[in-house]
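Hi Y.,

Following your request, here is the sequence exactly as I used it, all 256 residues.
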Amino acid sequence: MNQQQQCRGKVYLVGAGPGDPGLMTLKGKSLLEHADVVVYDALVSPAILGMINAKAEKIDAGKRRGRHSKLQAETTKLLIEKARTNAVVVRLKGGDPFVFGRGGEEMSDLIGAGVPVEVVPGITSGIAAPAYAGIPITHRDYTSSVTFVTGHEAAGKYRPEVNWQALARGSETIVIYMGVHNLSRIIPQLIAGGLPAKTPIALIRWGTRREQEELIGTLATIVERIEETNFEAPAIAVIGNVVSLHSCLSASRPSV
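Below is the corresponding structure, written out as tokens. Let me know if you'd prefer a different format.
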């Protein structure tokens, strides 16, 4: 009997969205309500976790800076084991599984192990958090391009580092995930690439949740402002002239 035949269930890589339970997809919510096992990440909001079937086994596999509860290989092994004996196994990931969520890695490993797997996309924080802060990442009067990039790169990856100077020249809006702790290194490279030091930047913490907060500055001032306010992750950074719209559009923040 091969691995595929031995596997009783299926793994669903479900995007939980950025935090507001109203942004959870109907398909994702239905899977949580019928799951036998849910393996979830650290950034999944309590409101989303509250949607999980009360009888389901819940396993915290969250990764946060400086404290990983499980290594990636351990998480994948766990998913394979749970799919052998359970019909519906949900791998619940903050945002979207395929946007800096390691979903592609997990799907590849599951397929290699003969485990049926399906991805259920979610709304990524790089779009939702700026929207809740009154910052449209595209706007006909300000920008016709946007780049999503990680500010926290894995060791031993496919290439040494992000070419920040090229991004500065090639994109009018830059959205950085997981980059708050590295801005002091990133910003000089963006300025060297041609972005003016006065370019607006917004840091958005806990996007779309009740506790969402923003820190607004420029490339020249934001690192100092982070130190002054003790602003910490998890947060995304939005860089570009669209950030200037925050002052007039943030008053219409969606209710959470």
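The first strand starts at residue 10 and ends at 15.

Thanks again,
Q.
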